[in-house]
Write a structure and sequence with these properties.
Largest sheet: none
Number of strands: 0
Strand content: under 5%
Radius of gyration: 28 Å
Structural class: mainly alpha
Number of helices: 11
Helix content: over 70%
Shape: flat
Distance between the termini: 67 Å
Order of helices and strands: HHHHHHHHHHH
Length: 316
């Protein structure tokens, strides 16, 4: 491939990136958002909505923006479907992106970054007058395209890990509240709705799971199926064990309150052990910066008098 063809290819990528950018920005100016109506809606302290989380102006607007953007692009004949849509949908759901358009938005973001990153890299290297030779120059541009394709995957994986950790940390508190509700006479179905409303500000991710379970139960879905769906959406082993515990207790006619009390104690103990593990790892993690930054200074301070005596140099 000649250098002229490669240049035309890069220019085509730049043009495609600009077109996608214009398409992405156009819906923001083409359709007005009734902010006054949104601001007059429920606040963050209101009850849980059908989406499972507290109403949020920023989240709602962002979701509608991506939905309109995906619809706008597909209306122009550009397909955003993926052959691995079920796998991507499950992966995005673990990260908290359970919207119907999440997979298509993910494919769109990957395509945009795969075009924007090499375009920006090419423009930067050209402006600074890079001394890289032809093959190395285009290899860097190609590497930026690969980075743009895989960066969303890294971000989604990291967000999924953080979400699972947040759910795991808040689950013992939710179990304690569920135990109080059960002992007060509430049924297990009503416990999910009540506990979800109580923990929405402290543990919003877990409140979203509980709200979804409550909606599924009110819609007539069997309790066992709703609990299995909750365990699958969470991706946390402890919640999967909790779902199995409730299902088996329901089938065998055992006391839900007793089972919750035992399991809540185990969860609190597990959280305490994880905190102790992090505390015990802290001295090991601090040893590396201490050796790197403090040890040379200490050695220099101790060795300086001996060096002065040996050399006989007056440093003052």
């Amino acid at each position: 491939m000649s250098s002229d063809m490669v240049t035309y290819l890069i220019l085509g990528l730049v043009f495609g990136a600009v077109v996608l950018g214009v398409i992405a920005i156009a819906p923001m100016f083409g359709r007005k958002v009734d902010l006054a109506k949104r601001l007059a809606g429920p606040t963050a302290g209101a009850t849980i909505t059908s989406g499972g989380a507290a109403p949020s102006l920023r989240t709602d607007y962002g979701s509608n923006l991506w939905a309109r953007l995906v619809e706008e692009i597909e209306s122009r004949g550009i397909s955003l479907n993926d052959d691995k849509a079920p796998v991507l949908q499950e992966k995005l759901a673990l990260a908290g992106y359970a919207q119907p358009y999440a997979v298509r938005a993910y494919v769109l973001i990957r395509a945009m970054l795969a075009l924007v990153f090499p375009a920006v890299t090419y423009g930067y290297l050209t402006l600074v007058g890079s001394t890289l030779s032809g093959p190395k120059f285009y290899l860097v541009v190609l590497g930026s395209a690969v980075l743009g394709m895989y960066l969303p995957n890294v971000i989604v994986s990291g967000r999924a890990d953080r979400r699972q950790q947040e759910i795991l940390n808040g689950f013992p508190d939710a179990l304690d509240l569920m135990l109080v509700c059960v002992e007060a006479g509430l049924g297990i179905d009503a416990c999910f709705a009540r506990v979800g409303q109580e923990i929405i500000n402290l543990h919003p991710r877990l409140a979203e799971l509980f709200a979804t379970v409550s909606l599924e139960l009110r819609a007539g879905r069997p309790r066992a199926e709703a609990l299995k769906n909750m365990a699958r959406r969470s991706g946390v082993q402890e919640i999967q064990s909790f779902a199995t515990l409730v299902i088996q207790s329901d089938k065998l006619g055992a006391s839900i309150g007793t089972a919750l009390k035992i399991y809540a104690g185990e969860m609190r103990e597990g959280r305490r052990m994880r905190a102790e593990e992090k505390a015990h790892r802290l001295p090991v993690l601090l040893s590396v910066p201490m050796v790197v930054f403090l040890l040379p200074v200490v050695v220099g301070a101790l060795a300086l008098p001996a060096v002065i005596q040996i050399t006989g140099t007056d440093v003052l």
